[in-house]
Amino acid sequence: MADRIPAQKAPYPVQLEAGKTYAWCACGRSANQPFCDGSHSGTGLAPKVFKAEQSRTAALCGCKQSGDEPFCDGTHAKL
């Protein structure tokens, strides 16, 4: 399995829509950060698929090391 690559050392603020399904890039290789574009193919990594429970602005992890993926938990400050 390949290592996760930090896309950036900060979260991505995104507007989520209630009931919509999203695929958060867990590998860091996507050109469509913070969402998956299939660049993980062949790495042994997979995106984190989740459904937004409510419409809101959320901070999605950019460093790919969060313990609360896909959401930022501040881990990037320790890298």
From TrEMBL:
Highest rank taxon of the organism? Bacteria
| Sorted UniProt keywords | 2Fe-2S, Iron, Iron-sulfur, Metal-binding
Outline the extent of the Iron-binding zinc finger CDGSH type domain.
9-46, 47-78
According to UniProt, the name of this protein is Glutamate synthase
Known InterPro entries for this protein?
A: CISD, FeS-contain_CDGSH-typ, MitoNEET_CISD
Kindly give the SMART domains that the UniProt entry links to this protein: ZnF_CDGSH
What PANTHER family does the record tag this protein with?
CDGSH IRON SULFUR DOMAIN PROTEIN HOMOLOG (PTHR46491), CDGSH IRON-SULFUR DOMAIN-CONTAINING PROTEIN 3, MITOCHONDRIAL (PTHR46491:SF3)
Q: Does the keyword Iron apply?
A: yes
